[in-house]
Amino acid sequence: MNDVFDIYTIIFLALAVFIFMRLRxxxxxRTGRERPPYDPYSRPDTAKARNGAEGKVVSFPGAxxxxxxxxxxxxxxxxxxxxxxxxxxxGSAVANGLDAIAAQERGFDxxxxxxxARSAYEMIVTAFANGDRRALKDLLAKDVYDGxxxxxxxxxxxxxxxxxxxVAISKADVIDAQVKGKTGQxxxxxxxQLVSVTRNAAGEVTDGDPETVADVTDVWTFxxxxxxxxxxxxxxxxxxxx
Length: 242
Known about the structure:
Strands 1, 2, 3, 4 and 5 form a five-stranded antiparallel beta sheet that branches. The protein is 38% helix and 25% strand. The chain has seven helices and five strands, in the order αααααααβββββ. Residues 22-81 have low confidence and may be disordered. The chain is elongated.
């Protein structure tokens, strides 16, 4: 009886081993690299991420949700057009210079700058005529201030006085803009109408005409250290133009 039991036991064990080997050959072994089963309800990008190679998944910022309405394609805007319109032509040396300044000067506004330059132009011309060195010192670079101050001193030495009255500033055109290191420079051609007269110690007119409005063209260059706390631009060069 024991012999029969042993024979059947051996037969069943052999059969079990045979079946196990067959299943192994059909199903294969788990190696830890198997892909997970496909989920038909998963988002397409999620499914791709699962099936992609390790370390190759890249998330795209601002990606739209599946049911979100498509956003309209952005309208192409010519570089520099909205910023320098009416001041410099697109692609010109002036526009490129203004771009370079704006790249280093956060919030740079050319129209705001031009308004300030007009005011500075009138203040400087008036302060020079009045011999107001204190006002000039805050608006001029040192070498320019030294030149203005010397001219005032010469006028004072001769007992002369100067009177200037603005009628209008008809034009203030940007003719040059550039960045040198961390310094921005903008050159403006001013066209103004003013009445200017110089008198001697006796009050006699030696230059100009108190009754005549003269057209004056000046080319001035303003500069400032871009990004500096001091927001003021200073006059660094002057040139009289015909």
